Amino acid sequence: MSGLVIWTGFVSFPFLFNYILTVSGMADSVKRYSTRLSKRLAEEAEDREEKPKRVTKKKKTNSKPPQYTDHTKIIFDVFNTIKSLHNDNIGDCLAAIATSMLKPCASPFIKDDNKSKIDLDKLVKFCQKVTDHMRVNQYHSSTHVIDVVQSTHALWLRANLSEIFSEEDHFAAIVAALIHDLDHMGLSNDYLKATQHEWAKQSGEEAPNEYHHLQAGLTLLEEEPLCFITGFSQKAKTRLKKKLTDLVLATDMNRHAETVTGLEQDVKNAISNGEKLTEKHKKIILQGLIKTADLGHLYAPWSVHRQWVYLLEEELFSEGDKMRENKMTVPIFKDRKKPGVSSDQEGFFNNVAFPLFEAWTNCFPECAVIVEQAKSNLKSWKTNKS
């Protein structure tokens, strides 16, 4: 998502300082994207040299994923959670977590014969396919997907969003978390634009990563063996896809300031004044939800957060290596011969994380623990640095 720049989730400070907003009409341009994306996803590994190998599974998928019941943790150790599921197939782990969260949201989609319109077997296969399409990246990996799915659900519960939203909205938020980084190459939007990558051309150079993740996810949802929403009415499918578009595209860090301002001004004022929340307010809240979850490692336990930062650092160094190969100027924080992002996290916390987290908790004080934990992590960085 030149000069000394601090990154997390591929966002550079120059973009954040200038508060660049997403070009209007982007969601409409989504419709023009090819519906043949799933075929191309399989072909890309051979067609593009820069594409890392996809995760390959050494074991056959279990017919039933392991059971998962710990839905409520906001201060979350994703690495330990995966180990606790006693299953080395990460697709099964993702399926266990996602199905346990999506099943309670299924009541709006129940047929008269009490059969769910959500096909749970296909949902498991969908989660497996998501992990198949997550490339071998240090940071943007299947583990990150699990982390964001958990954080989205836990924040929803802690903020009591069911008092504001329908179960259909909850369902959409979890599915958006599932696909929000689908097929990520471990390369930033800046790199894709600078190299005139195919994704940049297809998106009109407006957030090529997020645009591709969205289209990859929508394409998987259309594949018959994976389409776990076949029982939905056409109107319900249309609503779901609209919400997925709003949420996945909101994870573009160039829209960070837009979301923070929307929460801090529009939503907070409406809640403070006891006003009825409009559809605009609700859209901002859902976008704030997934953005806060996407940065969830910043309020993870210190040891977990630190591990994520080192993973991000290595991914950024890998991009820097590609930049050097292409004779591009390598920013300091992407140059593995120089200090990386782990050497200075203070700027990112103060300029990116805290404005979002505080805007969120000002609207939903029940989530104040995320600010407290983030402050504790920043203090630990300062302590280790001194």
Structure description:
By secondary structure, the protein is an all-alpha fold. Helices cover 57% and strands 0% of the residues.
Order of helices and strands: HHHHHHHHHHHHHHHHH
Q: What percentage of amino acids are in beta strands?
A: under 5%
Low-confidence spans: 1-39, 41-63, 110-114
The dominant shape is globular
Largest sheet, in brief, is: none
- Tally of strands: 0
Radius of gyration: 20 Å
* Class from secondary-structure proportions: mainly alpha
- What level of helicity do the residues show? 55-70%
> For the residues shown, what is the average pLDDT?
84
User: How many distinct helices?
Assistant: 17
The first-to-last residue Cα distance is 30 Å
A few lines on this structure:
The chain is built from 17 helices and no strands.
Helices and strands, with pairings:
Elements: H1 13-18, H2 26-29, H3 37-47, H4 78-84, H5 90-102, H6 120-132, H7 142-158, H8 167-179, H9 189-194, H10 198-203, H11 208-222, H12 234-250, H13 256-272, H14 279-294, H15 302-325, H16 346-363, H17 369-385
Helix pairs in contact: 5-6, 5-7, 7-8, 7-14, 8-12, 8-14, 11-12, 12-14, 13-14, 13-16, 14-16, 16-17
